[in-house]
Amino acid sequence: MLVAVCALLGLAIGSFLNVVVWRVPRGESVVRPPSACPACGHEIRPRDNVPVVSWLLLRGRCRDCGAPISRRYPLVELTTAVLFGLVAALVGLSWLLPVALYLTAVAVALALIDVDVHRLPDAIVLPSYPVVAALLALASLDPGGTADWPPLLRALLGGLAMGAAYLALVLANPAGMGLGDVKLAGVLGMFLGWFGWGTWAVGLFLPFLLGGVLGLALIALGRAGRKSAIPFGPWMLLGAAVAPVVAPPLLDWYLGVTVGA
């Protein structure tokens, strides 16, 4: 039931994220004006704004002018729904679920924007600091359970440490990444630090591994050169999502090989 509810929530959030991804890079409000067809300007009717279903019923075309509607819209909605359901299955019904779902929505929006315009907008990243801090505080308080404050302190320190690490990388090689990556690193560092320093370290390392593998693959296929610009934000977000899952077995293996030997 939890997975189904979160998946349905993901469909609705995904529809909103389509608006965010289009308007935020352009400095437009995500609230007004209402969504309209970019070809004819007609406002989209409520019945034509049902995630995925409306696109299918309209056969991917505007009701008024027949202009094609990109497949990206239903794909973003479906992807967000799947990710929300997966997060719910992994996290379960806990006070950690709200922050995990929030970061999932932010990750979808930021990844698409970074791919589109090679930017991580402050309008999304900066408000995430107080939101993530507040939701992690709620998870540490655990209403109805036993409060556990050390993870929250570790989260705050993790945010500072990861932001500082990325800032050092930018100062050492300004062409390698931008300040948007530094700002995002602080948010992801808080989330990863809440789980522990081992997960934090894996989350710091994974984006470089994943991004490096993709870069080598693109060079091998002739689709990129050594100086080609590849958005790094999506790899930071993917690394932060994967780290809490893979870090425990990975660290157990590493300790078994080193200490156990």
From TrEMBL:
Recorded catalytic activity of this chain's protein: Typically cleaves a -Gly-|-Phe- bond to release an N-terminal, basic peptide of 5-8 residues from type IV prepilin, and then N-methylates the new N-terminal amino group, the methyl donor being S-adenosyl-L-methionine
Prepilin type IV endopeptidase peptidase domain ranges (all copies): 102-216
Pfam families, per database record: A24_N_bact, Peptidase_A24
Catalytic activity, EC: 2.1.1.-, 3.4.23.43
TM ranges: 81-112, 124-141, 153-172, 208-225, 232-251
Domain Prepilin peptidase A24 N-terminal: 8-89
Family designation: Belongs to the peptidase A24 family.
Name this protein carries in UniProt: Prepilin leader peptidase/N-methyltransferase
Organism the protein comes from: Cellulomonas xiejunii
